[in-house]
Amino acid sequence: WNPPVDLGFPPAFTPGSESLPSYHITSLFPLYDRNDNLHIVGNVSPYVRDTNWILPGEVWHWCAANPDTWNRIHIASPESLNAAVGYNTMICARPSLGEDEHGNLFVAWEEFDGVNVEQTTSRVRADIWYSYSTDNGVNWADGTKITDGGEVSYRFPSILNPIGDTVMVEYIIDQVAGFFLYSEGPATSNPIVVQKCANPYAPGVEGPKN
Q1: 137 — alpha (psi -120 to 50), left (phi > 0) or beta?
Q2: CA–CA dist 197, 210 (Å, integer)
Q3: pTM exceeds 0.85
Q4: In Å, how far are 119, 175, 186, 192 from 189, measured between CA atoms?
Q5: Cα 89-95-98 angle, rounded to 5 deg
Q6: Coil, strand, or helix at residue 178?
Q7: Distance (Å, whole) CA 3 – CA 71
């Protein structure tokens, strides 16, 4: 193995203030693109003095080939958080990357709805979001929610590679928000699904579509 390289932290929150970015255990997903450039997406949460907060959350992209190695993808900062997000997560988390044949990048992540509460566990439910970049991750489209909220929680997304005319995101539909293993509700049978979205940059597709 080569010597480790310290990526540092993205310039999240307010650089120079008492709020410092911290990686979460759900951070950091790597991808080598078609030109063998390394891309990494990660989500960070703020440390304020000695306390780690779960929001606001930010999703960032890193690539040494870009003018700025770190570029922000998304900020999640709901006005209300009516219940806990649950075990081992933060307000937005678990980003994963994909690339199509034209070099466009796609990222998906889970993000909790601060007001959609599972009453049996007092845990908020999550949705799946995604974004994309046409310039190697320098600029990103506004995040788009691709699930419909409701009475289930959508968790653990993963983009399937390679990406062609269709962007496919795999995730779990959690019937009761929370982890049974940590006494957050009952054990449930949760389907794993693949949601398909049209690649807005595939030949013959006119503009972004879901």
Answers
A1: left
A2: 5
A3: yes
A4: 18, 7, 10, 10
A5: 160
A6: coil
A7: 25
E strand segments, 175-207? 192-198
Is residue 197's pLDDT more than 70?
Answer: yes
Nearby residues of 119 by Cβ (< 8 Å), 6 or more positions away: none
pLDDT at 133 over 80: yes
Per-residue model confidence as pLDDT tens digits over 24-47:
888 899 999 999 999 999 999 999
CA-based torsion, 152, 46, 24, 158: positive or negative: positive
For residue 84, count other CB atoms closer than 10 A to its CB. Answer: 17
Q: Is 69 exposed, middle or buried (0-12, 13-18, 19+ CB in 10 A)?
A: middle
Q: Please check the confidence at residue 210 and state whether its pLDDT lies above 60.
A: no
DSSP class per residue in 47-82: EETTEE-S-SEEEEEE-TTSSSSEEEEEEE--S---
Tell me the residue length of the chain: 210
